[in-house]
Amino acid sequence: MPSPLKYNKKYDKLTDEEKELLEINKKSIADFVEQSTSISDVNYATRNAHAKTYAVAKGEFIIDKNVPEGLQQFFDKEKYDLIIRFSNAHLKINKSKKEVPAYGFSVKIKDENGDLLANYPLVNFPLFPINSVSTFLKLFTSVNRFFVKKWSSFSLMIQILRITPSIFTGSFFKNIIKLISKRNDFILSFDYHSVGAYRLGDNMMKIKLKPTSVDKHFGKKLTVKHALENYFKTNDFTADVLVQICYNLKDQPINRLNVEWKNSPYIKIGEVKIGKEAILNPTLCDNEMLSFNPFESKLFFQPVGKIQKLRDEAYKVSLQTRLKINKLLKYK
């Protein structure tokens, strides 16, 4: 096996134009969150992505006894405590039973003292359709403005058309077809992915969560929220935690998120376990206000890449605005 490619700050560096667009985008995020109570018709300010919480649960990350020697230094305990949030990716909370199956499985990993080690926002689609930071920021800004009624749908369509070329890859089409075929499957039966790369010390990795022994037909006639609640009344959940290591940018590109990594075998580093009755009340203020900003992680677990870099400021402005508004609303 070749030597892993080492992390370098150049993978994260934004241009001056991208930084300017990011400042505009941050303002649009704040505007969206400020109006999110009316946008989603709820009594609290929501996130401006993955707004809907299906469930929050406690879990454990149990380290595999056969972790490769080179990775053992990062996982020196037998197990770690987890807080997990299940969500839908839409900016607006959809209250109908039928929803687009764009799911989130966000994980907060803590040590034995309760200190944060890492946040990993995982999703059930492994790719991202946009490689250009500028294109993404313009699209995300126009989406936010569309919801707060500052831009027309025509302007939004223009931005959507600009990203169309990025989806014409074999990897993207393959995964779109796979998602369509699984659109009615139970939320816990999906694989979950980090999409972008993360540091693993000086190395760089992608993460995959692969559930074991979950009936994809479970809760077929229930809403996702009620299906999750019913599942954890009688079932435990287990998923393998797998990583891919970056060895070269041709086969494992850091800033091309619309293609899958190849020639990097999956390495099992442990299992996520959620026991029966592990569901917490998702409407409690403390649970709704949870933040899964991956840049709050320890330095050697933080995100890598230009699109990933945008998350830090976006998460911060979203959280700060939610905290301010929900404090004024006295949301409980």
Give a short summary of the structure:
The protein is α+β, with helices and mostly antiparallel strands.
Structure write-up:
30% of the residues lie in helices and 22% in strands. The chain is α+β, with helices and mostly antiparallel strands and 332 residues long. The chain has one domain: Catalase core domain (Catalase HpII,  Chain A, domain 1). Strands 1, 2, 3, 4, 5, 6, 7, 8, 9, 10 and 11 form an eleven-stranded antiparallel sheet that branches. Strand 3 (103-110) and strand 4 (116-123) form a beta hairpin. Helix 1 (16-39) runs parallel beside helix 2 (133-147), helix 1 runs parallel beside helix 7 (306-329) and helix 2 (133-147) packs antiparallel against helix 3. The radius of gyration is 19 Å and the shape is globular.
Structural domain tally: 1
Order of helices and strands, N to C? Answer: HEEEEHHHEEEHEEEHEH
The major pleated sheet works out as: 11 strands, antiparallel
Q: Which fold does the CATH topology refer to?
A: Catalase HpII,  Chain A, domain 1
Number of helices: 7
What would you give as the CATH superfamily?
Catalase core domain
Number of strands: 11
What overall form do the CA principal axes indicate? globular
